[in-house]
User: Fold this.
Amino acid sequence: MNIKNVVVVGAGMMGNALAQVFASNPDLHVTLKTRSLKDDRWQPIENNLDIMIARGAATEQEKKDIMSRIHFETDDAKAYSDADFVIECFPEVMETKQQLLCTIENYCSEKCILATNSSVMSSTEIGSKCKHPERVVGAHFWNPGHLIPLVEVIKSDKTEEWVIDETMELMTSCGKKPVYCKKDVPGFVANRLQHALWREAFYMVENGIADAKTVDDACKYGPGLRWPVMGPMENSDLVSIQLTKNIHDYILPHLADNHEPSKCLQEMLDRGDNGFKTGKGWQEWTPEQIEASNTGLREYLIDYIANQKKKQA
Ligand SMILES: NC(=O)c1ccc[n+]([C@@H]2O[C@H](COP(=O)([O-])OP(=O)(O)OC[C@H]3O[C@@H](n4cnc5c(N)ncnc54)[C@H](O)[C@@H]3O)[C@@H](O)[C@H]2O)c1
Assistant:
């Protein structure tokens, strides 16, 4: 791999997590490009690592090593001139991201890869103002970025193959599981899958087939247990193509196929219900339940990482 110097731009939620991920690779030097050098700048990364240490997913030595490989920088020239790979974690505003990549191009070498962590925006459009759009690529981490292994590597209409290869290799070298999305489509791969499922889930609640908790339970205690080891394509092969075809002949005409958001979403918003933010959405939530939900997911992910590390040891 040719990448040695990685720059993460924007020290927000994703930027801090990504700096930690890249710094887990001892061969990389990581710069976190930030607006100012605040006294508490290390806090998000330290907090993330301390929680991991408490549950056996990291050690004090790893924390020390990771933090020693990250340095904060405010100056454009100093941050970008030696960069091999820059990933932007700026707010989700198209013009801001386009402008940022153009600024980076003024300082970095022609061989530097410019990646965007945008959740939804087209990497083709983000790179469209660049002098060298062929080195712009999507690299979509999932939140929490330091815990979820998946990174979607998205080819824009212009991205060259070497950029994809280097980006995939970089992610693997940092312990991530990169997947290659060959076309710059809305939702990339994983969000298309996720929102196809959400559409059906909302449809069932809207049509009185099941209540919200039942839909969640049906995922958590059934297919959701299968998904970490078997995705839909392998599962289809397992049950046979013939059975898959027979099932789809029968069931597809009955599944949700709306191209607009569920009308329940607007009705809830009109009532002032906004999920965890207001304590009510599809279900009602107490502050304790909200805390338990957030903590439960984070602990589950950390335990997954701790178990993976044990297996590798
Ligand atoms: N939050 C998520 O769940 C999630 C998941 C995957 C991808 N993303 C994507 O990652 C990107 C960042 O999201 P986030 O949640 O980390 O946002 P955030 O608001 O937490 O972070 C954005 C950071 O950019 C910084 N910034 C803005 N202007 C700057 C400037 N001129 N110089 C230096 N820093 C500047 C802000 O100070 C802030 O720290 C977005 O594109 C988002 O779509 C977010």
In short: Strands lie at 5-9, 29-33, 70-73, 85-88, 113-116, 136-141, 150-154, 177-181. The chain has 14 helices and eight strands.
